[in-house]
């Protein structure tokens, strides 16, 4: 009998980060997924078979020759809704890219007709080696999502790119990939498949997207600043969903206390001017789309005090004179940007649609996401509702209240529909 739960094959390979994957497995099982763990033989040197069996609630598949009557080397891939390999070592990436089938995991990868995700983890020199990068490019061309590793402390004293992303963030990648492709019917046996893992919505593959998130802070003195209530949740949801749809993501984050989304390059900034420089630099780095989800302060203090402003007994505070900050969205819209889709956000408290339409005309962006903000609305909440307006005259897209990831997917749907096909010069 077919399991009603989403079926996930969790491939574990021989890296020290295998212990972190126990947390990913726990999150998958506790959220209702039916998980079969397929470790390589050497992976069991790091975490043993009893641990994987206890956490998954299923027998652990380790050998091609186990349970031969059930043909596990074919069945696991054929029946999976998602294959997720973490950590993916350089050796595993190479074997997968070259179609080797010398153990149960690589056999499963060859028979899978569902979304496949690799989460690499290795030393920096191995990750940056041309051979590894070529293998990653091959896997992505075939439809796999390869999540760029995080930067940080590695085994021993080494530091750099190659660290396995946070398991909670890897779980979000798995969740979003399943949401996009988990319902895709399996490819019929015997069908000709040029890209076996690409039959699902990976419409941002090969694209570079830039997302801004959070709220800028404008310093008054070394202690105080002018800021806003933005949490960065919507921008981070945009980054996560873009990674799951295959994009290379640059996330410009202002004063956000959230874990880095797996697979995104995070650039941290503080002020509006900091954000302007970072966003423009990323936009000029071959960006196909720029989504300005951050709440950028409209004004900043005209005068910065080098020392903390003191109270004077019996006297009121001195007035704070403000000057306008640069308008990053308007600057992006005013620049020639053939083939680059610019998306703005309008946070309004009153006359939401009227103000949104006026802002769309004024800013020169291609799309504007208009939402109502205020007490108990949008800022800091996991849900959102919005209207997406388009400069090309398309009908507004109403997005009902729901998780911010759902709004993010609607936004990327609208962006993807406006991107020129890869290799086609923009009009």
Automatic annotation (TrEMBL):
<dbReference type="GO" id="GO:0010181">
    <property type="term" value="F:FMN binding"/>
</dbReference>
<dbReference type="GO" id="GO:0046872">
    <property type="term" value="F:metal ion binding"/>
</dbReference>
<dbReference type="Pfam" id="PF02441">
    <property type="entry name" value="Flavoprotein"/>
</dbReference>
<dbReference type="InterPro" id="IPR035929">
    <property type="entry name" value="CoaB-like_sf"/>
</dbReference>
<dbReference type="InterPro" id="IPR036551">
    <property type="entry name" value="Flavin_trans-like"/>
</dbReference>
<comment type="similarity">
    <text>In the N-terminal section; belongs to the HFCD (homo-oligomeric flavin containing Cys decarboxylase) superfamily.</text>
</comment>
<feature type="domain" description="DNA/pantothenate metabolism flavoprotein C-terminal">
    <location>
        <begin position="204"/>
        <end position="417"/>
    </location>
</feature>
<comment type="function">
    <text>Catalyzes two sequential steps in the biosynthesis of coenzyme A. In the first step cysteine is conjugated to 4'-phosphopantothenate to form 4-phosphopantothenoylcysteine. In the second step the latter compound is decarboxylated to form 4'-phosphopantotheine.</text>
</comment>
<dbReference type="InterPro" id="IPR003382">
    <property type="entry name" value="Flavoprotein"/>
</dbReference>
<keyword id="KW-0288">FMN</keyword>
<dbReference type="GO" id="GO:0004632">
    <property type="term" value="F:phosphopantothenate--cysteine ligase activity"/>
</dbReference>
<feature type="domain" description="Flavoprotein">
    <location>
        <begin position="7"/>
        <end position="170"/>
    </location>
</feature>
<keyword id="KW-0285">Flavoprotein</keyword>
<dbReference type="InterPro" id="IPR005252">
    <property type="entry name" value="CoaBC"/>
</dbReference>
<feature type="binding site">
    <location>
        <position position="298"/>
    </location>
    <ligand>
        <name>CTP</name>
    </ligand>
</feature>
<comment type="function">
    <text>Catalyzes two steps in the biosynthesis of coenzyme A. In the first step cysteine is conjugated to 4'-phosphopantothenate to form 4-phosphopantothenoylcysteine, in the latter compound is decarboxylated to form 4'-phosphopantotheine.</text>
</comment>
<keyword id="KW-0456">Lyase</keyword>
<comment type="pathway">
    <text>Cofactor biosynthesis; coenzyme A biosynthesis; CoA from (R)-pantothenate: step 2/5.</text>
</comment>
<feature type="binding site">
    <location>
        <begin position="326"/>
        <end position="329"/>
    </location>
    <ligand>
        <name>CTP</name>
    </ligand>
</feature>
<feature type="region of interest" description="Phosphopantothenoylcysteine decarboxylase">
    <location>
        <begin position="1"/>
        <end position="208"/>
    </location>
</feature>
<keyword id="KW-0210">Decarboxylase</keyword>
<feature type="region of interest" description="Phosphopantothenate--cysteine ligase">
    <location>
        <begin position="209"/>
        <end position="427"/>
    </location>
</feature>
<protein>
    <recommendedName>
        <fullName>Coenzyme A biosynthesis bifunctional protein CoaBC</fullName>
        <ecNumber>4.1.1.36</ecNumber>
        <ecNumber>6.3.2.5</ecNumber>
    </recommendedName>
</protein>
<comment type="similarity">
    <text>In the C-terminal section; belongs to the PPC synthetase family.</text>
</comment>
<keyword id="KW-0460">Magnesium</keyword>
<feature type="binding site">
    <location>
        <position position="308"/>
    </location>
    <ligand>
        <name>CTP</name>
    </ligand>
</feature>
<dbReference type="InterPro" id="IPR007085">
    <property type="entry name" value="DNA/pantothenate-metab_flavo_C"/>
</dbReference>
<keyword id="KW-0479">Metal-binding</keyword>
<keyword id="KW-0436">Ligase</keyword>
<dbReference type="GO" id="GO:0071513">
    <property type="term" value="C:phosphopantothenoylcysteine decarboxylase complex"/>
</dbReference>
<dbReference type="GO" id="GO:0015937">
    <property type="term" value="P:coenzyme A biosynthetic process"/>
</dbReference>
<dbReference type="GO" id="GO:0004633">
    <property type="term" value="F:phosphopantothenoylcysteine decarboxylase activity"/>
</dbReference>
<keyword id="KW-0511">Multifunctional enzyme</keyword>
<dbReference type="GO" id="GO:0015941">
    <property type="term" value="P:pantothenate catabolic process"/>
</dbReference>
<dbReference type="Pfam" id="PF04127">
    <property type="entry name" value="DFP"/>
</dbReference>
<feature type="binding site">
    <location>
        <position position="363"/>
    </location>
    <ligand>
        <name>CTP</name>
    </ligand>
</feature>
<feature type="binding site">
    <location>
        <position position="359"/>
    </location>
    <ligand>
        <name>CTP</name>
    </ligand>
</feature>
<comment type="pathway">
    <text>Cofactor biosynthesis; coenzyme A biosynthesis; CoA from (R)-pantothenate: step 3/5.</text>
</comment>
<feature type="binding site">
    <location>
        <position position="345"/>
    </location>
    <ligand>
        <name>CTP</name>
    </ligand>
</feature>
């Amino acid at each position: 009998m077919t399991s009603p739960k989403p079926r996930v094959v969790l491939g574990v390979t021989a890296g020290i980060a295998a212990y972190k994957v126990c947390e990913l497995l726990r999150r998958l099982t506790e959220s209702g997924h039916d998980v079969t763990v397929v470790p390589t033989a050497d992976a069991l040197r790091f975490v043993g078979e009893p641990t994987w069996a206890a956490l998954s609630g299923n027998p652990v598949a380790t050998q091609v020759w186990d349970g031969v009557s059930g043909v596990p080397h074919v069945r696991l891939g054929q029946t999976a809704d998602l294959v997720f390999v973490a950590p993916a070592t350089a050796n595993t990436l190479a074997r997968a890219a070259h179609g080797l089938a010398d153990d149960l995991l690589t056999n499963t990868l060859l028979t899978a007709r569902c979304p496949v995700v690799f989460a690499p983890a290795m030393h920096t020199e191995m990750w940056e080696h041309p051979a590894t990068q070529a293998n990653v490019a091959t896997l992505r061309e075939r439809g796999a999502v390869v999540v760029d590793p995080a930067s940080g402390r590695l085994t021993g004293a080494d530091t750099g790119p190659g660290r396995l992303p946070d398991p909670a963030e890897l779980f979000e990648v798995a969740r979003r990939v399943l949401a996009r492709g988990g319902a895709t019917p399996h490819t019929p046996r015997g069908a000709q498949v040029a890209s076996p893992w690409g039959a699902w919505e990976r419409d941002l593959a090969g694209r570079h997207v830039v997302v801004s998130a959070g709220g800028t802070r404008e310093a008054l003195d070394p202690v105080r600043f002018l800021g806003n209530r933005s949490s960065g949740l919507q921008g981070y949801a945009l980054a996560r969903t873009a990674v799951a749809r295959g994009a290379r993501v640059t996330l410009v984050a202002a004063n956000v206390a959230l874990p880095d989304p797996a697979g995104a390059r995070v650039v941290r900034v503080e002020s509006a001017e900091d954000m302007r420089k970072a966003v423009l630099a990323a936009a000029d780095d071959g960006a196909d789309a720029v989504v300005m989800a951050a709440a950028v302060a409209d004004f900043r203090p005209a005068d910065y005090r080098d020392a903390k402003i003191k109270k004077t007994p019996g006297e009121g505070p001195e007035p704070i004179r403000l000057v306008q900050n640069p308008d990053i969205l308007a600057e992006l819209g005013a620049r020639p940007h053939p083939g680059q889709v610019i998306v703005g956000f309008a946070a309004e408290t009153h006359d939401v649609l009227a103000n949104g339409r006026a802002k769309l005309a004024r800013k020169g962006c291609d799309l504007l996401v208009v939402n109502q903000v205020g007490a108990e609305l949008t800022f800091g909440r996991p849900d959102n509702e919005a209207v997406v307006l388009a400069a090309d005259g398309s009908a507004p897209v109403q997005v009902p209240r729901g998780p911010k990831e759902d709004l993010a997917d609607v936004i990327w749907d609208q962006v993807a529909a406006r991107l020129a096909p890869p290799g086609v010069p923009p009009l």
